[in-house]
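Long-time lurker, first post.

We've been arguing in lab meeting about whether pyridoxal-5'-phosphate would sit comfortably in this protein at all. Half the group thinks yes, half thinks no, and nobody has a model to point at. So I'm putting the question to the forum: if I give you the sequence and the SMILES, can you give me back a predicted structure of the complex? Inputs are below. Any interpretation is welcome too.
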Amino acid sequence: MTEGNGVPFLDLITPHLELEDELLAAVREIVRSGGFIGGPVVERFERNFAEACGGEYSVGVGSGTDALRFALIAAGVRPGDVVVTVPNTFVATVEAIVQAGAWPRFVDVDPATFNMSVSALREFLEARCEIESGSGALLDRESGRPVTSVVPVHLYGQMCDMDPIVDLAGRYGLTIVEDACQAHGSTYFSREKQAWQRAGSIGAAGAFSFYPGKNLGACGEAGAVTTNDAQIAGRVRMIRDHGQSRKYYYQVEGYNGRLDAVQAALLEVKLPHLEAWNRKRRAAAAVYQELLAGADGIRTPVEPEWSRAVYHLYVVRAENRDALGRHLSENNIGTGLHYPVPLHLQAACARLGYGEGDFPVAEKAAREILSLPMFPQILRGQQEHVAAALVGFCQTQASRV
Ligand SMILES: *Cc1c(COP(=O)(O)O)cnc(C)c1O
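Top reply:
Settle the argument with this. Predicted structure of the protein with pyridoxal-5'-phosphate, as tokens:
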């Protein structure tokens, strides 16, 4: 791609062209087998994905949203519970909590990483909750509901600071379900365990999406739950299949949320490439970091030393974000906003009772963030074009004041 053609935000064509023969052969095999739902292809992918995530089990489901919803239910979230998460995430995090019958409560995010703020979580648990005498349950003061779980979201491909979250969850008896839908292969160095840990392997369960644009994407809708707990894995297997333990014997209320064999076969072809693709994303992030060093007024992503992010998104910050977005668009550069309106200010979440000013860090982020083109096959020349446009914008801004 030349400069004149601009730079797309995402390239979903090239990786599939590179693997086209293998992908089509995999689909052909499924078509010829007639085994479209479940079966050995799904099971093989589940085993391989669990291994790639450093966990015991993975259970394939219909989407990342299914994965979150099923993981929450299987991990023990009950109707009426409070589940704590962050407002600056994809809407599915909150959909899944609500659809599991629970009540979402938000805590603000860290201003450096935009991931769940440990101090905000601690403040919520200490100051806004109380232990019910008698039952010993942790109650959310405002709603009177029991607080049972927390969903840290590994946003943009970078993991949350899990040690203190695990510590707080342990202290308050909370179950952790990781929203790892943007973090396939992302790792975190646990100071506690003195070991690198993978996204989806730390909480009671982790939820992954294989939406086509994710770091590991299907050619359609797909997702998976990861867990080290055989019981949780078993429950997810039931929930995804109408709650049945064997055909037509329904143990629990379930859903139609299975991973189909065609998607599993396509994912199986792509999975061996995930690590290399993630390495390329990290290399592209390093190139941006170097090229944008001279762009005054643009703040590049922060990666703490305990994190190896997989840059599902490469998100910069600028005070005049909207003008910058327009400038890049005029230069034929695709950008994204992840996300323009935090969930506590969305119409769909009005009944949660939040308002402007409740989560100032997330709100400021929503005004300043801009996602730049990021995909494994991005060329240095493309990144140079993006960086030149950014630097050019900063210079015109500077000369105006
Ligand atoms: C993509 C995504 C989801 C939902 O995944 P789907 O496969 O689209 O249902 C959930 N949470 C986050 C953070 C995501 O990025």
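For your lab meeting: The mean pLDDT is 96. Residues 274-399 form a domain with the Aspartate Aminotransferase, domain 1 fold (CATH 3.90.1150.10). Whichever side wins, do check it experimentally.
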